[in-house]
Automatic annotation (TrEMBL):
Keywords from the named record: NADP, Oxidoreductase
Protein name: Short-chain dehydrogenase
Cited PROSITE patterns: ADH_SHORT
Organism: Naematelia encephala
Family: Belongs to the short-chain dehydrogenases/reductases (SDR) family.
Tree of life domain: Eukaryota
Molecular function (Gene Ontology), one example: oxidoreductase activity
Classification via Pfam families: adh_short
InterPro entries cross-referenced by the UniProt entry: NAD(P)-bd_dom_sf, Sc_DH/Rdtase_CS, SDR_fam, Sec_Metab_Biosynth_SDR
Amino acid sequence: MTISKPIPVASASALYSSVAGTGRLQVDSLFDVAGWVVVVTGGGTGLGLTTAIALAENGAKVYITGRRAEPLQAAAVERTEKGGAIIAIQADVGNKEGIKDFRSQLEAREKYINVLINNHGVSLGCADINACEQTPEGLSKQMFDGEDLDKWIETYRINTASYHFTTFALLPLLAAAKTVGNFPEPGNVVNLSSMSGITRTSQRGQFNYNASKAATILLSHMQAAEFARRGLGVRVNVVCPGYFPSGMTVIDPCNNTGSDAHSSEFRNKWGIPFGRPGNAVDYAQCIFGLITNQYVTGTELVIDGGWLLEAAF
């Protein structure tokens, strides 16, 4: 067994003194994305839109994709105060033809990208495992007869397989951030999974969605490992959010009074120990940390207000 030796005091001091006084440890420098080119799939609504707005407000040029033109155009921003923008490109990246189309449109505008955030996804419904007789026969009827295999396949196609194809399709543009864009590192990837991909409960029978999100976590680890093994420098990480307002989780973001009754509802009904859903600030802080830290790859970041901790008991 190899035991790591502590860093000598002189070396540790040199580590920090090398950047002291340079401004590199100031918050604006630590999380600087000004001038970056970012792609956020499914960026017209929900957490994708939160991500796009946060990045654009800090000077990034953000391309958002989606199948529906209306929310994309509503989200587009020509120029923010810090010079960022949100640019809409209608495309269905849930299939290879749509990915090819999006790549062609992107290549016509940009020579590199700094970040790819695979955010698109679906939750297509499931049979409620609790809404039947809790016997082998009852469970078999509910979960076999009542489930649609096509929904499983569709869920995996969009939530997992399309992340694989989108990432590899845009890999040359990610690599070009360093070789063409002269940035310190190539572009990096953030895949969106869920706390549902980690929990051991089916959440009332949500086997298809939870299994697809678990697969997304493993896919992210494999991508990170294979890119590192080949010395590409392209980092891949995965975010596992809990309950945030979105198209899949109907929570009024303004209805967060902090009152005892409201907090109790989120603790008891939703199982969130912190007594509230996540918000835009929580999520933006998570994303900025992952995309700017050049020493993080192959990890999943859980941001769930303690839901998984509560579910473990």
